[in-house]
Structures are given as structure tokens and as C-alpha cells.
Amino acid sequence: MRRVKADLLVMGASQVVTVAPPPGTPAGPRSGKAMREVGVIPGGAVAARAGRIVAVGEETEVRGRVDLEPGARVVDAEGGTVLPGLIDPHTHALFAGWRADEFRLRLRGVPYLEILAAGGGILSTVRATRAASAGELARLLEGRLAAMLLCGVTTVEVKSGYGLSWPEEHKLLSVMAQVARSQPVEIVPTFLGAHAVPEEYKGNADGYVEHIVRVMLPEVARQGLARFVDVFCDEGVFDLDQTRHLLSAARKLGLGVRLHADELASLGGAELAAELGAASADHLLRSRPEGWRRMAQAGVVAVLLPGTALFLGKPYAPARDMIGAGVAVALATDFNPGTCPIASLPLVMGLACVGMGMEPEEVVVAVTANAALAVGRPDLGTLEVGKQADLVIFGVPGYEHIPYRMGGAPVSWVVKKGKVVVERGRLLESP
Ligand SMILES: [Zn+2]
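Predict the joint structure of the above. Result:
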């Protein structure tokens, strides 16, 4: 075997979970039986150089053919389990203003429409976020990403959508760009101007959609502020025609598209995602078998959000039926102040097993390889030669402990782009 140079070696693991696809697996998101193949190497090791993986295999084999460069870092996993850095493909992590009062009202059974009428709901977050400065928002996002990193998450999709006017949406997308440079977690920025109809356009959703298409989207594309455009396509929000119009315009500008689909009602959002060639359709609590069939054919990833179903007391998405229909499933937190304040992706992995009947192997694929494709990053999500060296070491003897311990599996080390960013459970200030 060819010798390789390395500046990072991870050894001493009980297992390395590569999540590499088994030979013969078709390219693209993993579905069906391929969601159960996680590629375990007992006692494995990983080596990297300049942020890319250069060797993965059994420890003796990797050590035997890697030449460590002067100053190379050697990480002893001390019997832990090594996985690709986890990817959270759906969050609303950039907001000001929590909604704990609303939580209390919900617990008392007050209907959401009454909460809205009392000034609560999503538009209360919009008011608080508009009132916050870019600096305040940057600090909030940095703190949240640090918490996610300590859960083993190295890449996070973050949506705008609490601004709902061009200056305010621009502020949010600019904060994302700034925070992407100020800390180690990679941000996949998504423009969600169509998150809700703002007060200024009350009763005129069509007018707001037109404003997004004519004013906001061209600026988002011109300034390179977002990788994806998303729409909250559901009953009482944006309908299928408005969503199709907006996302078709986004595609023409070269932006990727994704959508909040079939959460509250069976509108056909899953079918629309397939028609548009979306990277993902998310939520899908009320999606239909015809929609799953089309998503499977079109290679659209289903991003399921069991934390939201749990928090709202709704039935979970039918993950087993969707996987049975050949749909590639990913998992995300949906972290947001109104409908899912859960920021822990490992906890969501546990919920997916307990609430939706997914297997431990499937939830591992869902937060690594499939989540990577849901955010358009095929260079992430598996431990294979040539991929970006993002990895997490959990202090557990096997990957099944991660969902089993319901968010409690300790993270001992995290490596981002080949650099140690969490050491023995502690965030490094300046990696
Ligand atoms: Zn969402």
C-alpha cells in the first residue's frame, strides 16, 4: 500500500463508523437497506492531512503506512466510538427572544390561534429579532453553535426567516456569513423569506411572494448570501402555487431549493419537492404514499424532525413507511423558539428510534451521509479518503449507545477540517 503523510491521527477507538456506502450502492442519498450499512471498523483509525482524510482502516494497517509530519496531532480515542461529524440539516437557530410564556399557555391547552391573537407565535420572534442588533444576533448564534458542537455536530443548516423584509433578512444572512468565519461549525445558509406573511403584508400573501421574487431573491443570489431557498408551504401559510412560483424563480437564479412540506395538512408538498428537484422536503407528518414514491424517484431527501412532533404532541412522521417506500431519510432538530427548542441532534436520534421505529444504523446514516446530501455537501458525512476531516468521538463502546442514551452519550473529541476543536469534552477557545 502507498505511504501517506498525515498531520492528524485518531487511534485507540473501539470502533470507527465510516458510514461509507457498501460497494455497488448507487450514488446519491441512501435509502432502503443501504440505510442500515454504517461500515464499522472494530479498532479502527483515521488519518488526515490539511483537513482531508488520507487513510481509514484497521489501526495497525493505518499506523503502518502513515508518516506523521512534524507537529502532527495524535488523538487517543480511549476506547470511544468515532463517527463522521454530525450534520443538522434543518434549524432556525438565528433568532432573538425565547417564547417561554407561550410554552406555559400551550401547556394549559390554549389554541395556537389564540396565542397568535395575543401577539405570540412566530411574529413575536420576528419583532424580537428585528429589534436585535447584528452583534447581539451573532453572539446568540455563536453560543448556540458552540452547544451543538459539544453534541458532536460540525455542520448546521441555518435558515433566515425572522426578518421578513429585505433589510432584516439581509441582516440575518450577513450575521450567518460573519459567524461562519468566527467559530468552527460550518453554516449552510438558507434564505427563508417565505417563513410567514409579515404584518406589513397581512392578508396579501401573493403580494409578499411577489416582493420576495422581485426584490429579495435577486439580491440573495447576487450577493451570494445563501446556498438554499426554503418556503413554509402549508395550510394557512404559503400554498402550492406560491411555493412553486418562488422556488422556480430561485432555481433560475442558480440557488438550491428545499421546503417545509406537509406538516399541518396534506397539500402535496412532497410531490412538489420532487417536481422541483429539491434537495429536501422537511417535516412530512401528513405526506402521502404518492409523494414518497415521487421523492424516492427524484432523489429528494426527507428531513424528519421528531423533536417538533414530540414538543407539539403530534404524531411522528411515518418514517418506517417512508423508508419502506424507498425514501432516503435524514434527521434534524428544527431548533427554533416556538415549536422545537431542542438543540441536541443526538437526542433527536434517540427520539427517531423510540418514536418512529428507526434502527440505530438508520439514524446514524440519517445524521451523517444523508444529512450531508440534504444540504448539498457530498464531501461530508462519511469517513472516506478524500472527504473533509470532520469527525466526532463519543465516549461509548459502540454507535448504538448514541440513540440509546437519548442525548446523554458523552462527546469527548471533535475534529473539524482536520483540527481538534473539542478536547476531552471541552470546547477549545482558539483551535
Ligand atoms: Zn423549520
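The chain has 16 helices and 19 strands.
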